[in-house]
Specification:
The chain is of the alpha+beta class and 394 residues long. Helices cover 25% and strands 29% of the residues.
Amino acid sequence: MMASMRHGWQFVLCLTALLAIASCETADKPSGLKLTPTSFTDLAGWQDDSVSEFLPALQRSCALHLRRPADRPVKPAGFGLTAGHWHDVCTRLMDLPAGDDQAARQAIETWFTVWRAEDTAENAKGVATGYYEPQLRGALNRFGPYQTPLYKTPPELVTVNLGDFSDDLKGKKITGRVEKGRLVPMPERKQIVDGALANRDLELIWVDNPVDAFFLQIQGSGQVVMPDGQVMRVGYAGANGRSYTPVGRILIQDGEVPREKMSMQAIRSWMDTNPDRAPALMDANASYVFFHELTGDGPLGAEGVALTPRRSIAVDRRYYPLGIPVWISTTDPDDDSPIRRLTMAQDTGGAIKGVVRLDLFWGPGPQAAHKAGLMNQPVNMFLLLPRGFTPPVS
C-alpha cells in the first residue's frame, strides 16, 4: 500500500541504506520464461471443459481492462501488453450468453491465441498448489477465547517505488515506516505478536486461535464467524515488508516432516501436536499480513476482482500479467484424475515464485481446505493472449 511521503528528500539520501535493511521486490520480468505458439487443438481436454463456467472470471477482469486507457501498460513491463490490447476482445466477450459452452468456446478460439509457457532452466518442473477461503471464529471485542487480533494496516506503513528516485532501481520497491526522518523496517511477526502494535485501535477483529490466524495470513483472505452468527469477510490489506519464509520448508529441513508428506494438513497437524513449539515456528516467518473488511463479492485477488472458485489462479507477477486466461493441465490431489480447465490469473502470493508455478483457488469450506492443503501437483500452463498481440518468446 502506497502511503503519502512527507519526507521524500530523506528517502533519496538513504536509498543505499534502505536496500540493506528492508526487503525489496522487483516488478520487471526476469529471464527464464519461454513462450511457444501452439493451438487450441493441442490443449488436451479443451472440448470437455465447461468454458461458460469460466466466463464470470474473465468478465470481471475485462471490466477492469475496459476502464483503463488504451496506452496503459499491463505489468510486468517486459511482457509488452497494454490495456488497449484487451479493449476489442473484452468488448465482444462481455455479453456472451451464460451457460452456452459452444458459444463461449467459439468466441475464445476467435479472439485468443495459445502460447505454451515453459521454464528455460535445466530440469525445471511445473508445480501447482492450492489455496482456499478459510473460516475462523471471532468477535469484534476481546473476551473469553477471542484473544488473537487481526490487525488493520498501520497508518505509518509506507511502500516506496524506488524507481521514482533512480533509473537503476526501476521496478523495485521497499516497505517500511518513517522514524525521525528515515525509513526503517516495520516490526517482524514476533514483535507484532508480542504487542508492537497493541493498544492503538488497529485491531480489526479478534479470533480464538493463533494458528488459524497464521494460516489466514498465508491464504490472504477468509471469513470470520462471530458468536451471533454474523460473518465478516476479511481480505489482504498490506504486509510488513519482511521476507516470507515457508514454515513447511523448515519442518522438512529439521526432519520433522518428510518432504514427500509435506502439506498444509501436515503443518497444521505438527502445530497441533507441538503447541509449545508452534509459536517459534510461526515466528520464523517474519512476514506479517494486515487485513481489512471486505464487502460485496469476494474474496478479492491481487488484481482487485472477486476470485472464482476453481477458475482463479495466483501466479508469479514477475513473469505474467494479471487478468489473462491460462489453460492449466494438472491432477487432483486425491486421486490424480486430470484437472484440465481454463482459469484466470487474478492473484499472486509470497510463496508463488517460478515460471511454471500457480496456486489454484478452491473456494470456501472444508472440502476446499482439504483439496488446497493436499495440492502439490505437476502442471503445464498455456497462456491465452489477445489475437494480434505477440509476446516476448524467451
